[in-house]
Amino acid sequence: MPEASKHSATRRRHGQEGPTEKMREYLEVIYYLSARNEPVIGARLAEWMNVTPPTVTNIVQRMEDQGYIARDGRGEIKFTDEGFAMAEAMVKRHRVLERFLVDVMGIPWHKIHEEAVRLEHSLSPLMEERIASLVGQSTTCPHGNPIPGSGVGYVGNLRLDRAEPGSQFRLRRIVEEAEEDSELMRYLQNAGLTPGASFEVTDQSPSYGVTLRTGQQTITLPPQIAGALWGELA
């Protein structure tokens, strides 16, 4: 029996039908970090989830026991085949929902992440298929991150806080951590800093951030915000 099937059978024998909601959150975060080729370790998960390292250790151990992840000799977390398939399906559902909420429902851009979180766990396969058909051939969510299965990967490999003064920068995506901050999303939308926007970087400093000029306005973004915006030189 394949490894994933053995784990599934074990869970059924013990009355476990799948990951808990908290495990699902961890699976998504592990997917995001892995897709960006970042090492997935307990400390990074604790930082993202804003929890203590012992909390991460406990949940990661349960996920490993249930066959969703494995840890190598250095403590890095890797997906099993089953864990990856489950995480990829969840991320696809979330990003398709975000696209649907913006393109079809007209929900404000800064609110779509939290609305998608509310909806994604209650979608039936039929509803998910219908929603996917309504968004057509979209390849990214409205924040610029790729929809799994679309054939498109992450684009824009330059962080805004690493762009040289005097350069023209085209914003391509906003990292997943930042999506969770609806007030930040509102600010970026009001400032016109959404995927596809182009602007000039006029100054840059590790201490106070990045100053940019877009249209007639000049904006200075703190380092932590500039570091969440990825793109390319225009």
TrEMBL record:
It comes from the Bacteria. It is found in: Cytoplasm. Gene3D superfamilies: 2.30.30.90, Iron dependent repressor, metal binding and dimerisation domain, Winged helix-like DNA-binding domain superfamily/Winged helix DNA-binding domain. InterPro entries: DtxR_MntR_Metal-Reg, Fe-transptr_FeoA-like, Fe_dep_repressor, Fe_dep_repressor_sf, FeoA_core_dom, HTH_DTXR, Iron_dep_repressor, Transcriptional_repressor_C. Homodimer. It comes from Kouleothrix aurantiaca. The keyword Cell cycle does not apply. Belongs to the DtxR/MntR family. Transmembrane segments: none annotated. One of its GO terms (cellular component) is cytoplasm. This is Manganese transport regulator.
